[in-house]
Write a structure and sequence with these properties.
The chain is of the alpha+beta class. It folds into 2 domains: 135 residues, Arc Repressor Mutant, subunit A; 75 residues, Regulator of K+ conductance, C-terminal domain (Alpha-Beta Plaits). The chain has 7 helices and 8 strands; from the N terminus they run αβααββαβααβββαβ. The strands form 2 sheets. It has a 5-stranded antiparallel beta sheet. β5 and β6 form a beta hairpin. α1 packs across α4.
């Protein structure tokens, strides 16, 4: 059966696993030789300052991996140094993966906070830019005359914004209103164009056969 470490809510190995790893490490280093009897459960519980149940789980794990043998009424003896070395190596690899996962989680949390801050600052920048851009602009209505060169052409075709310097917010036509008209919307004679623009662009609009009406300001 392969070893699968248990972790707490803080992603740390359970206490009994740490104890099992410590004992296995000592065996791998040769502090305990194969066949040697090591401390009993009570002695180990006192040495690691844990309950006998924690020691029991640690020793059961080591026995499962073939590292030690448990002898009821006698104690614990070392069974295999190679098994101890393999166990320590496996735990080390899993610990590395756990550390990487924790570090990655930390970075993802930091990135999420940065994304939220970037979104907040971007929103503030857009709001400020819009206020600055519209500070000297006004909303005005223009009626499209029959003689206008824009008549029968779409907003995109005449490049309304670049030609006049104004942005069309809506078009009033036959008692209905087209809000935020698309570029393919065709301009018709008699249309009332509701635009936002700087005052100096009004004369330019008139040059294209657009008659200014009462401003909404």
């Amino acid at each position: 059966m392969s070893f699968v470490p248990e972790f707490t809510s803080r992603s740390r190995p359970a206490r009994y696993i740490n104890i099992a790893v410590d004992i296995a490490t000592r065996i791998a280093r040769g502090e305990y030789q194969e066949g040697q009897r090591i401390f009993g459960r009570s002695s180990l519980a006192g040495r690691y300052n844990v309950s006998p149940e924690t020691i029991r789980r640690a020793l059961a794990l080591l026995e499962e991996r073939g590292i030690v043998k448990l002898h009821p009424g006698v104690g614990v003896t070392v069974n295999s140094r190679v098994a101890a070395e393999n166990y320590v190596a496996e735990f080390g690899q899993r610990q590395v993966l756990s550390d990487i996962q924790k570090q990655l989680h930390s970075y993802l949390e930091e990135r999420n906070k940065l994304d939220q801050e970037i979104a907040r600052l971007t929103s503030e920048l857009l709001n400020y830019t819009f206020k600055m851009a519209t500070r000297l602009q006004r909303i005005q209505e223009f009626r499209v005359e029959q003689t206008s060169p824009f008549t029968g052409k779409s907003l995109g075709e005449v490049q309304f914004r670049s030609q006049t310097g104004a942005t069309v917010l809506a078009i009033q036509r036959n008692g209905r209103e087209i809000i935020s008209p698309e570029a393919q919307t065709v301009i018709q004679p008699g249309d009332i164009l509701i635009v936002i623009a700087h005052p100096e662009t009004f004369e330019r609009c008139q040059e294209f056969g657009l008659t200014p009406l009462t401003g909404l300001s």
